[in-house]
Each structure stands twice: as structure tokens, then as C-alpha cells.
Amino acid sequence: MKYIDKIYGEFELSGVIEEIINTNVFQRLKKIHQGGAIFLINPKVNHTRFEHSIGVMLIIKKLGGSIEEQIAGLIHDISHTAFSHLIDYVFEVEEEDYHEQRYREVLEDSELNAVLEKYHIDRTVLMDTEKFNLLESPLPYLSADRIDYTLRDMFQIGETSLKEICWFVNGLATFDNRIVLKSKDYAKWFQSKYIFLTAEYFESEENVEINIVMKEIIKDCLGKGIIEEKDFFEDDFYLMDKINQKSDLMRRIDEIRVNGLKNRRLSTKKRMVDPEVIVNDLILKLSEVN
Question: What would be an example GO MF term here (predicted)?
């Protein structure tokens, strides 16, 4: 099938990758917004986990990752709940990894497993995403996941261009099965974008506000039995529809915002990157480069 990614361009996808994308468990990600609840007050920030997941796979493929790692990249977010990380704020999951705790359970999806079995892919190989170094590496290092959400989010909010993204992607390389950059110029550029993304988008007044508001509404709805925890296993629109059966969600959002959010705080995970760079045949962190 032909797939057009808004930041990487046009690709032909086939075989196991195409068939996984066509499963219901993967198609569900079209209704899970990458930025969580922010689309409710800023409709332009409407990209999805579907786009991000395919983007991660494309980066891994570009870097020569195995088909197993490409699949792991493709499905690494299949267990994300409605509104992405909102459930972490509701239940105060400090590591923001509620979806990761569900990953193995969702990986048992029968339709997905039928595709994996058809192509002789062992499901158990995909269970531990951390063993795939291109897909997942701990901060402050680079990973395909971290790279894609940074580029995709920054493009969506208008803080980088397709030309810059193309330039940066051409600066990616691998060393010892991990992602490095070909020069400190690429590393400095990415680090600056990541710092901006964290401070001016993840921790922006707009983003923090809507997550605080939605956290309050969701807790109230859970307490009153309007929704259940398992409703988060569906998608953004399912959860919104269920809330709207008993209450006007957008009206409640407006009421809470008008009344102000003094003394209400949202704890988010702190992030910083220090990309590795090729310098005179050595691999150094950006902070180690003169």
C-alpha cells in the first residue's frame, strides 16, 4: 500500500507491516491523539499515535533495523489509552508508563497474532521493547521513538519545517546498534528542539491547563460511575461520547477554565537529551564535544 507521511514523505508498505497496520488494534490509534487532550482547546494539534507509530517504524527501517525491530517500533504504542498520557495524570503514575504496563496484554490480540504467525514472527520476541536499542534507549540518548515524536510534535505546532526535518534525518547514523548523529550541528539542532518541545509545549500553560482540567473531570466522572477505567482502553472519541451522555464535556472544560486554576499543579516527567555524535571516528556525547 502507498502511505504518505506528513513529515517523511511517500512510502510503499507491504507484507507484515501492511497487514499489521490494517488490524483493528492498530487502526484504533487513529483515534488516539498524540498530544492527549490538547486538541480539545487547540484543534491544530491533532496528530495521532497512528502517525507517530508508523513514523517510528520508518526511522528504524531507514537505519537498517531488523524486521522484528521495525514491527516493535510499529506496535510500541498499541496499548496507549484514550487521550494518551491523561490516565497517568489521573492515577498519578509518576513514570507515565500506564500504557507500558498493559503492553503484553494488548499484544495478545488475536487478529494481530494471526498476522504475526502468518509471517513466522514470534510474539514473545516483541514483548520487551527495551531490548531494541534503535526503538528505545534511555534518556539522555536518542531513540527512534524520541526522534519521531520530537520532529512530529515540533512540525505540528509550527516550530520546524519539512526542509529542516529532511536535513536532520539525513544526519542520522548508527553505531553499536544505537542511534548517533553525523556531526555536532545535527546534535545541537535536535537538542535545542527537544528543549523547546519540553519547556514550551509539554510544559506550556495551554497544555498543563487542559490536562489539569481533564484530570479533574475524569476523576469526577470515575467517582460518579459515568465512566470506568476500562473505557480508557477504547479511544478518545468513545470516552468523550460516554462522558457527554451524562454531561456536556466542553461546557465543563470552559467552566473550570473560567473559574481559574490557582494552586492546581500537574507533575510531568522531566526530560533532557544529550545526543551522541561522531567526532573524528569517536562517539561522544554532545556535552563532551569541544
Answer: dGTPase activity
pLDDT, residue 17, reads 98
Domain map of the chain by residue range?
Answer: 2-288
Split at pLDDT 50, 70, 90, the class of 286 is: very high
Place of cell 569541544: 290
What is the tens place of the pLDDT at every residue in 215-252?
A: 999 999 999 999 999 999 999 999 999 999 999 999 99
Architecture of domain 2-288: Orthogonal Bundle (1.10)
The pTM for the full model equals 0.95
Q: How many CB atoms lie within 10 A of CB 15?
A: 11
Q: What percent of the chain has pLDDT over 70?
A: 97
What confidence tier does 160 reach under pLDDT thresholds 50, 70, 90?
Answer: very high
Burial 62-97 (b: 16+ CB within 10 A, else e): ebebeeebbbbbbbbbbbbbbbbbbbbbbeebeeee
Question: DSSP of the chain, one letter per residue?
Answer: -EEEETTTEEEE--HHHHHHHTSHHHHGGGGSBTTGGGGGT-TT---BHHHHHHHHHHHHHHTT--HHHHHHHHHTTTTPPTTTTHHHHHTT-TT--HHHHHHHHHTT-HHHHHHHHHTT--GGGGS-GGG-TTT---TTS--HHHHHHHHHHHHHTTSS-HHHHHHHHTTEEEETTEEEESSHHHHHHHHHHHHHIIIIIITSHHHHHHHHHHHHHHHHHHHTTSS-GGGGGS-HHHHHHHHHTTS-HHHHHHHHHHH--TT------------EEEETTEEEEGGG--
Q: Binning pLDDT at 50, 70 and 90, where does residue 130 land?
A: confident
Candidates 245, 252, 212; CA nearest to 227 is 245
